[in-house]
Amino acid sequence: MSDRSPLCDLSNYRSDTCEIEGDVRVAGKDSSSVVALLPDPSPQSWKIKPYARKSDPSAMSNVRQVNVRAVVDHTAVPQCDVTHTAPAVVFSTGGYLGNYFHDFSDVLVPLFQTAWPFAGEVQLVVADYKFWWVGKYSPYFNRISRYPIIDFDKDERVHCFPHVLVGLSSNRDLIIDPASSPARYTMFDFAEFMRETYSLDRHRAGGAQGKRNPRLLVISRARTRKFMNVDGIARLARKVGFEVVVAEADFGGVANFSRLVNTCDAMLGVHGAGLTNAVFLPTNAVLIQVVPFGKLEWIAANYFRNPAREMRLQYLEYTIGAAESTLTELYSRDDPVFTDPASIHKRGWAEMGAIYLKKQNVRLDLRRFRPVLARALKLLRK
Fold first, then answer.
1. Half-sphere exposure of 293 (CA within 13 A, CB side)
2. Which of 10, 64, 71, 345 shows the smallest number of beta carbons within 10 Å?
3. Are 258 and 200 in contact, with CB atoms under 8 Å apart?
4. Side-chain half-sphere of 364: how many Cα atoms within 13 Å?
5. 280 and 200 in contact (C-beta within 8 Å)?
């Protein structure tokens, strides 16, 4: 038995985490507890919500609390029903899961960073367990762990482990900081992991495959932030020199859509969850993010530009002008929506998002946009 006390780090703005070595008992259904029986610890206890978006009260309201305690009294711990030799990772599939971007940023990337160092020899213990959600990413979970998932909320047994991690290591959205990663992973490592997990053939883009032109995937959207002239965009891209595929991101059929993405050399889309599919692009592919009107460059940079570069993709960005936004059909051009977007941001995320993210569609100025496509083609042909 280790003499190491539970180490809980509550300082990270994204995620509280604990790492416990020794005799650790996990009792979910009735007590929501992780109890460590250790020699001579000082009294210690923590309340952890094991989901990597702790600064967001709305997300965390849907996450179950786990009570972590260190004790010395054998009578104060539940008796083992099942004894495991592999370590355990305890986390939640609550929060915002079901949104494709948050699936990756809040769980899939942090879980890779936390659990993959064990190379499958790790037991997953899941609070707020969504069977349908785990099934959606079954190739991922089957590779991360060799063992059936333990449902923390419903399993009545006490599970005993030699090593338990509560919560997932997380740095930023779709970013892994190798300096703080146990195995010094990067987002490039995650992208390679996803390509291997989904048996994707292409690991590098550039030039042409055989005799065909480089392939561009245009991500269409059915609701907000959709391209109003998607057919014109496709025609323009073909004239520039691309083979073009237009498709709406299939958030349910991850395996099938990942294969389509991986056949492409470039991907174009308006800022939104569909761009998360960049994780399936081959290395050196070009991601073109169209940024809606409303001073959203900082969101575009943090959610997709920076992660794309970390995945060793080439990145281009096109910010639309007011004339390219359908907000002109809803607001006069002298409204603060156009004249002072910063004032809209000051009203808070909900109001800003309702205007610039939910009400806005995009009609690209094809003459203005053409150089972006030409630049993407040039990058691929280097």
1. 24
2. 10
3. yes
4. 29
5. yes
Of 180, 171, 176, whose CA–CA distance to 189 is shortest?
176
Strands 314-319, 150-151: pairing kind: unpaired
User: What residue ranges do the domains of the chain occupy?
Assistant: 7-178, 215-380
H helix runs in the chain, sequence order = 57-60, 100-102, 109-115, 131-136, 138-144, 187-197, 230-240, 254-262, 297-300, 306-310, 336-339, 341-345, 349-353, 366-380
Which amino acid would we find at residue 272?
G
- Rounded to whole angstroms, the Cα distance separating 187 from 108 reads 12
**pLDDT band at residue 107 using 50, 70 and 90 as cut-offs:** very high
1 band by pLDDT with thresholds 50, 70 and 90: very low
Q: Which two three-digit tokens encode residue 94?
A: 């609550």
Q: What is the mean pLDDT of residues 42-61?
A: 92
Q: Of how many residues is the chain composed?
A: 382
Q: Write the CATH number of the domain with boundaries 215-380.
A: 3.40.50
Token digits for 377?
């083609």
In terms of C-beta density within 10 A (0-12 exposed, 13-18 middle, 19 or more buried), how is residue 348 classed? exposed
pLDDT exceeds 80 at position 11 = yes
Question: What is the DSSP annotation of 264-308?
Answer: -SEEEEESSGGGGGGGGSPBT-EEEEEEPTTT-HHHHIIIIIHHH
